[in-house]
User: Fold this.
Amino acid sequence: MLQTHLLQKKMGLSTCDQHGEQEMFFCEEDQRPLCESCLSAPEHKNHQVLPLETAADKCKKKLREIWSILQKKEQKFQIALDILRRRKAQFTERTYTLKETAFSEYGKIHQFLWDENYEYQKRLVKASRRNLLQVEETEIKLFQQIQKLQQVKFEVEENLDMMPLEMIQAVPDTLKKKEELGLQRSALPSISLPTCSITGMREMLMSFHRDITLDPESAHPHLILSEDLKRVQYGSICQDLPDNKERFDCVLGVLGAQKFTSGKHYWEVEVGDKTAWELGICKDSVRRKEKHAFSSEDAMTVTAFTSGNSFFFCTSDKNFLLRRPLHKVGIFFDYDKQQIAFYDLTYRCLIYSNSNMDLEGPLCPYFSPCLPNEKNTPGSLIICPKSPQ
Assistant:
């Protein structure tokens, strides 16, 4: 309203509708212009009334103060906007730099791993050629021994057809050849391949680590579980436990309490100096009340045992030999891809992998310390906590 009257002043003073006089004053209380006759009216008696020009100058002063405040506020917002834009540019540039850095660093890692793989492939080929050479040399020796044996056998057959005196005279020479052949051995060469220690293997696997615990309801009565359900060992005395449907009564095993129906999972088990144990995964619905060996339809496990000076691993689809026992085993299971892998954590290498599983329904980790005997070292299977080491 004030701005309207100021505009009117530039064009000429307004006229009072009541008295017909020019409105040359302004009432601050009512915020309206007044003529001289209006000043004597009772309703404006105690009001602050100023000449219109004075009121306009006062208003200008207030407007300039407001403008100054808004100007300063605008400058602050402009400074903030400039800073934000600089940060935006810096952020965009930093993001690009980080992308380039990550690409470069991962490239180095990829190259490093490719180089490691290339060197391992070379060692593997070299070891394979060396082993094949030993096999071929042994093959030739065995073939030659067989030929000599066949030749002596032929001489023995000829001796049998001789006249008695001739046969008696020929026997010493035949016995001498037989003794010479008896000293020869049919030993097979020891075949060994280089270990492939995989850089970053455990660090990658630990991202899928699961806190596995043992299920006491499934444990065979001869198995003793720790209070924290992380350790299992064989006990010679059969415990008096409820014969519930979940409990193994023939197979010396115990299941993990966790059930998997999807996703990737990893856990580690310390086997220590034990020379017989079984680890893996099996169906939650696996048979508990009858003696049986796990089949590929029910489970995928690895069984370890010693025979003489050799350490064997058996699986449901193949048997194979390792030259050294294990002390700590890592198990990785991908439910969706139906893959399982066992790792030697001491040497950080793969022991065995199976990607042809076909196990449906909930699946559980499986543990068995195996029945001890005079050939096996007793001890516990211990589920390891998550650790960066």
In short: The longest helix spans residues 52-160. Residues 1-7 have pLDDT under 50 and may be disordered. Helices lie at 2-11, 36-39, 52-160, 164-183, 201-206. The two ends are 79 Å apart (CA to CA).
